[in-house]
Amino acid sequence: MDLLEDGIADASKHWYYRAKLFPIERALRRYVPEFSSLIDVGAGSGFFAKSIVQSSPGTSAICVDPNYPEDVLGVHEQIQFCRTTCGETADVLLFIDVLEHVEDDLKLLRSYTDAAVDGCLVIVSVPAFMSLWSAHDDFLLHFRRYRLGRLRSLMDEAKLTVLDAHYLFASILPVVWFVRRFKQKKNSTSDMRDNSKLMTWILVKILSFEHRFRLNRVAGVSAFVVCRVNRNPSAHGGQW
What we know:
The protein has a single domain (3-229), classed as Vaccinia Virus protein VP39 (Rossmann fold), CATH 3.40.50.150. It is built from eight helices and eight strands; from the N terminus they run αβαββββαβααβααβα. The longest helix has 17 residues, at 15-31. The model is unreliable at 236-240 (pLDDT under 50). The chain is globular. By secondary structure, it is of the alpha/beta class. 36% of the residues are buried. The chain has an eight-stranded mixed sheet, sandwiched between helices.
């Protein structure tokens, strides 16, 4: 969860974060079933790193966010929180809803992937389609939203091997589009709100089903890619 939304909603109970965790864990099981370390770049509250560490005992994690206050820095719940890394490497790099926050997305991506170990898995999620731009993007200080083709091109520029690429949250795209097109607010504000347990359960079930059985390369609310740092293409296989 973005630190700007800290206190607005609980990531561990919110349908968006719980549903997005599913494709991340699915990618980990499929492409790197055995890993011992990860770096969550732009981690915010650290929800994804915490969830993965809890489900993968023995895994170490570093959450990096330049906006962490002093009292957050250090080791909490077996996870190291820091504003920058000091040359650490990991088996997995997460960039979950972070590249849209910087003007030079390629520079941020390569600042980690160029130094990563061969075979490192890189999982990236970004908001999709400029037509969905709203006060929520203004509130979070986004620079852009992405089409899947643009995101794949970015991975190519970073010299990463793309293993999978698709959209997430297609099931709710019509509702999101309608709300953002016709109910935009003049002032920047977050769309993040706590929902009822019933609504959360319904949305998580729908979106988890979608992630499990449909790899949508047409449209969605988020764009999602899984890549590998591949110094030797013949050793790890080519693109899908």
